[in-house]
Recover the amino acids of this structure.
């Protein structure tokens, strides 16, 4: 039972920056992985960045060197710092959590729109 709420989306010019936030609530102690996915119209939902409870990170090749995922455990919040944004970054960005009890379970936020345009 995990609830995720994204915020921070909006419109930005190419080359600009934006920071997304994901606030988690509920049964969060067993979460071992937080991630950001994105989905453009007519496209599949793809992994952008992920971080485990041990601190390991993973990034899609398309965002390496530009995006950074981080967490603030005291605030139960996960962030995605996006720099040097490109038009192809335009998508709905979704927060994702994996919780392990008897079996692994995934949770999704509602998504936040990011538009990169001049």
């Amino acid at each position: 039972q995990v609830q995720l709420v994204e915020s921070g989306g909006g419109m930005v010019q190419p080359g600009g920056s934006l920071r997304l936030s994901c606030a988690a609530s509920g049964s969060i102690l067993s979460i071992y992985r937080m991630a950001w996915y994105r989905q453009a119209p007519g496209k599949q939902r793809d992994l952008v960045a992920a971080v485990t409870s041990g601190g390991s990170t993973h990034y899609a090749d398309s965002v390496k060197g530009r995006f950074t995922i981080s967490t603030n455990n005291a605030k139960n919040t996960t962030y995605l710092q996006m720099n040097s944004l490109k038009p192809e970054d335009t998508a709905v960005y979704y927060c994702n959590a994996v919780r392990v009890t008897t079996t692994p379970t995934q949770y999704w936020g509602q998504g936040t729109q990011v538009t990169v345009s001049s």
Summary: Residues 88 and 116 are 8 Å apart (CA to CA). The two ends are 40 Å apart (CA to CA).
